[in-house]
Specification:
single chain; alpha+beta; 13 helices; 7 strands
Amino acid sequence: MSWEDQGRQYHMWFGHGTAPVKAKDASDDGIFGRNGLAQRIQAVAHGAVGALPQAVRARAAAQYDAGNLERLSEAMTAWSRGTKLGVDEFAERFFGRTADDPAVKQLHRAALSVGLARSHAELREASDQLADAMQAIGLDRWPQFLADAQERARDPATVAAVDKSRQPPDPGKDAIRPVYPLETAIRIGVAGSAAAVARAAGGAILRQLLPRKSPPVYEGPKTIKTTKFSLPPKPDDLLRQGWKEITHPKELANGRRVFVNPETNQTVEFDKGRPGEPAWRGQDHYHIRNPDATGKGDKYLSRDGLPVPDGSKRSHIPADR
């Protein structure tokens, strides 16, 4: 199958659900597992070709046949790992551009989407974002852009910055409290004796070495707090707030709609209540997906942003609040 046909087919799968997620995809080795990033990037690269206007698909496919697929795969892996950097630093280190550059915005979103994707619909979203970036840069300039991006991703300073951004905070360093400068301590003691000066300076040093409060204990990565946004009674209100709907046709048939916030990449599900059904099945409610989920035990977030199991009471958020 040609690249052009392959890209069109991948994009069709993402949009219409004709490539179902197999059971193994939920494991570490499946495309949506923790070890499936490389597979997701390959699928998104194919899908991006299918998302391009028909007149330029063949030209884009030929560029990938020339070796740019490997460059894109390597660079996009680095971009996905680097999404914990600030947006400004992400743009400067990986592209030498500003964060408000249209191509940078799309590539940052694509890197987030491919890293967090748990469905074909989400991969289709990443494909669209990558295709938009390719067109913003220009297909003629895209191969050179990829070559430059690959070199930037390999830069030792960039690799070190990405690794640092993925490390948990150091409670020992965070515990150091600000103290008076030594010269301030000396000024405090000028009116007194030399012993007073020594005591002031020594006290400043001790306050630095022995903070008044115990160091904070690292409690793991912070989750996205649901208090940062509201869940309206009507799901269509999410669209007016700037969210995008990514509902799969099969989900819609079962009364579920899915929305993603393009700025935070947070995803929520809305389940329509069925009159006469018991408990939550008869009540309109939301589920907030946990972007760091490892399985059913922490699939969703509660209203206060804490990981909760699939099917638990706290994973259901009434739509009338």
